Amino acid sequence: MQNLIRTAVLVLAASLIAGCSYFGVYKRDLVQGNLITQDMVSQLHTGMSRAQVVQVMGTPLMEAPFSSDQWDYVFYLDKAYGGTVEKRVTLTFANDQVVDIQKSGDMDSDVELDQDSGPGPAVEGAGEGAAVPQVGPTGL
């Protein structure tokens, strides 16, 4: 009887372990850094002030640690069931104006980010074309 129980437990454990590898693991897209679009990059030019750059690109992801004359905007997307997308824009300043713009990565392709698949439950009834429920005091 004990051998039958041991065999059943062993078969059950083996089937559970094999089942995990059979179905695969759920993956999500991993997005890191500043979103960089072709439209944003096309608006950059030498002679822009820091405030103008912030209006176009937002705050930089990184500033050079020993000098505030270099701003780096980095975007990295690791697609769950695909490749990766990497973009980088490095701006160099002199007298608070852009003097050099260096780009790397595929700036021509824009990345579509799915906002509805974020963590947590979706808003009920907020599908495409649905009105977002209003929160707050109602008229009396």
UniProtKB/TrEMBL annotation:
It is found in: Cell outer membrane. It comes from the Bacteria. Residues 118-140 have a biased composition (Low complexity). Coiled coil: none annotated. It is a lipid-anchor. It holds the Pfam family BamE. Keywords: Cell outer membrane, Lipoprotein, Membrane, Palmitate, Signal. Belongs to the BamE family. Part of the outer membrane protein assembly complex, which is involved in assembly and insertion of beta-barrel proteins into the outer membrane. This is Outer membrane protein assembly factor BamE. The lineage of its organism: Bacteria, Pseudomonadati, Pseudomonadota, Gammaproteobacteria, Oceanospirillales.
